[in-house]
Design brief:
The structure is a homotrimer. By secondary structure, chain A is α+β, with helices and mostly antiparallel strands. Chain A is built from 13 helices and 15 strands. In chain A, helix 2 crosses helix 12. The mean pLDDT of chain A is about 95. Chain A has 2 domains: about 260 residues, ATP-grasp fold, B domain (D-amino Acid Aminotransferase, Chain A, domain 1), CATH 3.30.470; about 80 residues, no CATH class. In chain A, strands 9, 10, 11, 12, 14 and 15 form a 6-stranded antiparallel sheet that branches. Chain A starts with a helix and ends with a helix. Chains A and C meet through helix 2, strand 11 and strand 12 of A and strand 9, strand 10, strand 11, strand 13 and helix 11 of C. Strand 13 of chain B pairs antiparallel with strand 12 of chain C, so a sheet runs across the interface. Chains A, B, C: Its EC number is 6.3.4.23.
Chain lengths: ~350, ~350, ~350
């Protein structure tokens, strides 16, 4: 990982009145660029592809400049020209995935958020330890497949974007579906409705919902993911019917819909967000900026958190002009805009080093 | 029930330039407080719990003051301090449920809307009589279980928030699932898409969609409820498969999604809203403010109303900054804001007594 | 079809500072009137029914005037009074369906968009040729029912608004369900999530996402349709169970929900939109204004376009005050508003003839 000292040196050399906000051209980049422009920043798109013409269609989200690299190695190596532009990068899920976690950790450009969180997010066991030791409820782990006596969710390690999951209804079903050459984990399948809670933790904000380590927690929006093909599979009669026809359920994320949660669940939701943040400070120096708790709410009105994303999620994209939650704090602001606001405020108060790693 | 005369006496003592809007801290309280603040009111949260920290996260919806009671009896008894603050209460579903209908009817604080509607809403038979005699189409009632020869919905009396319902596909299925120690009703199951129509009837508004008794009817928004666990149960293969595994469908409301209805259905929707209001005036002195018709639209494009809620529903929560319908009347206004607008206008025109019981 | 020369003559006689925007009172008319008022136009509703009272409830979308005709023949014949009002009509799906395609083609009032597109849209074979020859991916056609060896979608010709479709899982299922007295087409059933992409092509706009024939392509919003009764059919246990009880799946559109698509799919989406437009210019003089690609995204993240609508779709109705896409171009603008903006700009620059047929 880039030493924090190196990042601080770089920031010392920046003209903080001329910050450029950069991200990879995908995922939630329209929202990030749009928010950055709103807060008066220059914007820069990073890409290895030729498919950026669609930005022309969205003038309020089109980056001021796009740099095309032959690959992510080149992007890493040519960090100098980003530093020349006083660039800070906003990592999103695809940024980290495309560049590769290791390369991202070593990318010598100030990055919004704590890069140390990656190690705890990408390893399922460490993620579970972090959250459960913080008091966040997760689905129960089943360590021995022969003990499956209920419906379970099986996830191959490194499963991304909804691929590499399956639901097994019992042990025989598990046996029939498992590819045992790959490592996997088995957990209780939690039946209920899914809510992806988009939190934002600001270590520099000194009012609002205050947390133990001195910063303020916000809930900016909630979405539900569209998953192909599971969402429409019931049209096949039943999933059993579909399987007999060679059609197997998959969980590939293709989009997002806006949703709100029952208001009486908000206290619990905030408690889970707060616990995730507090424990992150104890374990690895903290987590700040946007993060997402991916939850199921059962018919007992209990939450189960099946995953945490420690940066902006694409589920914030429906809320480019605000949400039923953000509008109670910052009317009309998106998560992308909230990130830019944090960077703007920190550059004014000379606190950029607190936010960048 | 508090005599109307007593409420009017209380209002006579109010300083109408210093009205406080109060509600119980749950359900749609963020929206109610947000709307009240927008219209310039003081706001007051009523609670019996310690879980109100999340209001800190939403500064534009945080009540100016929160009073914590040990229980709802104490809330009733300490009504004096509410009167000292010139308080009017906005009842929502959880307010009435938590306090208890009887206690709510006797709560000596001016309440927005007609409390007499409660008797007609809470009793399934009276509700059905009210609506069907007004010409509102409801699912057919099946009075003798042995006559079940189609898919039916069975509801235990007093079922709340989505608990206490089940779908039976035939008589044997009914026999297997019914708990005959509890009273229940059986009705035709209406297959179709669900629309929860959020109406607002303003008896003091003299333009717009005018109704028989001199007020104006509005449609402010439409939602669909998320229900746990039924919404994701098809992932179990089929519901039959799930039942064999001991997983039974439930209908607990966990959140809401925004939706719009086919425009050609609006004339019928307004007719149903108008009929509900007109009949309410004939039967029990009227219904005003927000109410919700909970409907199914069949593939013949017919409505079936399976329930009416006679106060603000949580389904309005996605629309804190307006909706595709409200924006055609009051851009950016929520149902909570609409309630506050009605109270503001009535306090200016000295008509508060018309709105309060 | 009305000769273009005749339309141009009519436009020559118009007072372009006094244009009236008219449409049939249904479908997306609230949005069209709302958008037209925003851009300063007079508005006129055309109807053959008595059910227009609901417009009173939406003052910002209520047309300035409503003309009631006994039938669509009379509407055609009385075109003179529309010309007297300098009227341009905005055709929507119900307008064309109610009036009848032939009558609509001959209706002597300037109509926004290219009427020639109707011949290519309403004939399934021509529509398929247009799109696939343009490079837009569609579900594979199965020309001989005996070759069904996968799940298929069967559509009767002239199927409208979601009626007249069925899914067959194999040849025996097809045989059991088909009414062979009606003409039909069979296509591969594409499993995935549905996205209805609302594009807008402006031939007069000279910046943004430029297309081959000199105009600019926009994506204004995306919805998913609610379909009755298929959407809630899984509650019956499984569709097989339901069929045994005499309940058959149907696909009648009853409403719409807002949605966003995975950002990495946007380049492909724009390419499909652009290809549809470019090919339209080659085949029949072009397509401009709003159009909708009705797509499925598979779990391979491939698009399949199962239909094109060549005018405003009701799926734009959730977005009366903007959308996550429109807000990146014209904050707060609906498709109805965008149409009115195009007409306003063209009337200022004296280019109305380019937009009207």
């Amino acid at each position: 990982m880039v030493p924090k000292k190196r990042i601080d040196e770089i920031l010392d050399g920046y003209d903080t009145s001329e910050i450029t906000i950069a991200t990879v051209c995908s995922h939630s980049s329209l929202q990030i660029f749009h928010g950055a422009r709103k807060m008066g920043f220059k914007t820069l798109g990073l890409t290895t592809k030729d498919n950026t013409k669609h930005y022309d269609a969205f003038p309020l989200a089109k980056p001021d400049e796009i740099i095309k690299y032959s690959d992510y190695d080149e992007m890493s190596e040519r960090n100098g020209e980003l530093l020349d532009r006083n660039t800070v990068i906003i990592p999103h899920g695809s940024f980290v995935e495309y560049m590769g976690a290791n390369k991202f950790e070593d990318f010598e450009v100030p990055s919004y958020g704590n890069r140390a969180v990656l190690q705890w997010e990408s390893n399922r066991e460490k993620q579970r330890n972090w959250l459960t030791s913080g008091g966040v409820p997760m689905p129960r782990l089943i360590t021995d497949a022969r003990e499956i006596n209920e419906v379970v969710m099986v996830k191959y390690h490194g499963a991304k974007g909804g691929r590499g999951f399956f639901i097994a209804k019992d042990y025989p079903d598990f046996k029939m579906s498992i590819d045992s050459t790959q490592p996997y984990t088995i957990q209780e399948y939690c039946m209920g409705t899914r809510y992806y809670l988009h939190f934002f933790y600001d270590p520099l904000k000194k009012d609002g919902y205050m947390c133990k380590h001195g910063g303020s927690l916000e809930l900016l929006s909630i979405d539900r993911r569209d998953e192909s093909n599971i969402d429409e599979m019931y049209k096949m009669g039943s999933i059993e019917d579909a399987k007999r026809r060679g059609l197997y359920p998959s969980f590939v994320v293709t989009g997002n819909t806006p949703v709100v949660i029952r208001e009486s669940l908000l206290p619990k939701a905030f408690e889970m967000g707060e616990n995730s943040v507090n424990r992150a400070y104890e374990l690895f120096g903290g987590m700040w900026g946007p993060f997402c708790l991916e939850t199921v709410v059962t018919d007992k009105l209990d939450f189960k958190v099946f995953e945490i994303s420690t940066r902006i999620v694409a589920g914030t994209n429906p809320f480019i002009s605000g949400s039923p939650y953000a509008d109670l704090i910052y009317p009309g602001l998106s998560t992308g805009g909230r990130i830019a606001m944090a960077i703007r405020d920190a550059s004014v108060s000379n606190d950029l080093k607190t936010l960048m790693t």
